[in-house]
Design goal:
This protein has 238 residues and is α/β, with parallel strands linked by helices. The protein has helices at residues 2-13, 16-23, 31-46, 61-68, 80-89, 127-137, 171-180; strands at 51-55, 72-77, 94-97, 110-116, 138-150, 157-159, 166-168, 183-191, 200-208. Helices cover 32% and strands 25% of the residues. It has a seven-stranded mixed β-sheet, sandwiched between helices. The protein has a two-stranded antiparallel ribbon with strand order 6-7. The model is unreliable at 212-238 (pLDDT under 50).
């Protein structure tokens, strides 16, 4: 686990300015992503707990967007250079260096977690622990929006991302992992790629199950297929 995280951190440290220049206004040209983030923010506000973490925040542009949408948002990232950039670009907001499997957040403290393509570099065998950590920091009923590259195949696919190796996932398989961590996926959006990689862009919106109620599932999707039944919340396990 540590080796691939060290490689990912070093890779992103080396492309901070280029990455920030490419992605600072990217959602202006990505209406699907933009509207899913907006829906996420609205639902988090509706929980009564507007505290939200942007995990893998990079240069901080989405943390700022969440703040503008009414959330008490802060950013966390594995890359110290990204955190430094985010602090300079958005001095009124909080940014800290952190690993996604060990978030510096108390149990049940958050109303929402945004993971915008920030789990794509995690090897498949380590993803359940990562999702369990997001569940740990969310209050029951809290929201998780995770975005990633999706594949139509049955298994995750490793590919050469421009920064460091990454993985695309079958959306149903990812939803099963969410269920195993105690989440009920109630909305999903898959759409044609905005890049030349050819993978679908996927967004899964999930709610951490209440201890006494079952989740409600639904779908905004290009795909069909049955939703997995949510499992009990997993214990705590870039």
């Amino acid at each position: 686990m540590v080796e691939h995280q060290d490689e990912t951190r070093a890779a992103y440290d080396g492309v901070v300015e280029l990455y920030a220049s490419m992605f600072a206004n990217r959602l202006e040209k990505q209406p699907f992503s933009r509207n899913m983030v907006g829906t996420f923010a609205e639902l988090v506000r509706g929980t009564g707990n507007p505290r939200a973490a942007d995990v893998g925040c990079g240069p901080g542009h989405l943390t700022a967007m969440l703040h503008d949408l009414g959330l008490d948002a802060f950013g966390l990232d594995l890359s110290p250079a990204m955190v430094d950039h985010a602090r300079r670009a958005h001095p009124a907001l909080q940014f800290d260096e952190a690993r996604m499997e060990a978030l510096p957040v108390e149990d049940g403290a958050l109303g929402g977690v945004l993971a915008h393509y920030s789990m794509i570099h995690t090897p498949p065998g380590e993803l359940p622990a990562l999702l369990a950590e997001q569940a740990r920091v969310l209050a029951p009923g809290g929201l998780l929006l995770v975005s990633f590259f999706a594949t139509d195949g049955p298994e995750p696919v490793r590919f050469d991302h421009k920064v460091t190796p990454a993985y695309s996932w079958p959306a149903d398989r990812f939803a099963e992992l969410l269920a195993g961590a105690g989440f009920a996926t109630f909305a999903r959006l898959l759409h044609d790629p905005a890049s030349e990689r050819g993978f679908l862009d996927a967004h899964l919106l999930a709610r951490l199950r209440q201890s006494t109620t079952s989740g409600t599932t639904g779908e905004l999707s290009r795909s069909t297929g049955a939703k997995p039944s949510p499992s009990p919340r997993a214990s705590t396990a870039t």
